[in-house]
Amino acid sequence: MQARLKVRRYNPESGQGPWYQSYELTVPDYATVLDALVQVREELDETLALRCSCRSAICGSCAMRINGHARLACKGRVAQLQPQDGEILVEPMGNMPVIKDLVADMGIHWDKVGAVDPWLKPAGPPPEREYIVPNQRMLELTQVMSCIMCGACVSDCTVLEVDKNFLGPAALAKAYRFVGDPRDAAEKERLGNLSQYGGVWDCTHCFECVEVCPKGVAPMDQIMILREKAVAEGYTNNNGTRHHRAIIDSVRRRGRLDELMLMPKSVGMFNIRELLRLAPGALRLARAGKLPFPRHSAEHKEKVARIFEKLEK
Predict the structure, then answer these.
(1) Which of the listed CATH numbers 1.20.1250.20, 3.40.50.20, 3.20.20.100, 3.10.20.30 matches domain 2-104?
(2) What is the pLDDT of residues 154-163, one digit of tens each?
């Protein structure tokens, strides 16, 4: 079959900005995008730079954006990804500096993983022979332990696009791997650190990390578990927890979301400095009709209140 690729190129040594280059070549029907890219490098353009290793969706080296979403190039077949009469768009991973062509600098990814202390912190001296852990407790961690650190979730994280301080889905999923390990004795300390700015409460539930993960780790699900554990440990004095409670309270009382009071309750009603900092954004929302005033309730708010009562019972 004919493979048609549109590849984003970048060579810092040439001083030329990023550009797109199209390639057309004949590949077997079973060829993956990685097969096609390697063939381009070997037969058409030896200057094309990319990473690859196992070609078996194990090492994670060939993560890149294909048709606008991060994925492993060795796991996507050309026949499935190529639009009819179109080209497969191939770009380097997002949220990371590009070194050359499809090779991204993953330093930001590894720095964030390192920031969550990705190692066990057991209490006291080690046992004489080994730690004995119930099999069921470790089975609960098999999903997150499947992570191959490819960085696909980091590439497509919408929060990292606007806030580089966010730890990111890969690091937070790795954090849960140790928070949930029965051999670890630093759960409370870890959850306290993860409840700070840039931690679990900065996730916006966009589901991108769940969609692009090639191993089904579902980082967002692990972030939600970390939130529950943090609240259970008493870490509730933060904007994320207050925001969560503000949504519940407004829906319970008014049968709908009270946008006008959501931000003040999230940052704290008496946090004047933060409220003043957010004032310009609030004014823009008001002009756009996103902050209705006067506040109003749903027509049948008592029915919503009964739903809350039944759930609490």
Answers:
(1) 3.10.20.30
(2) 999 999 999 9
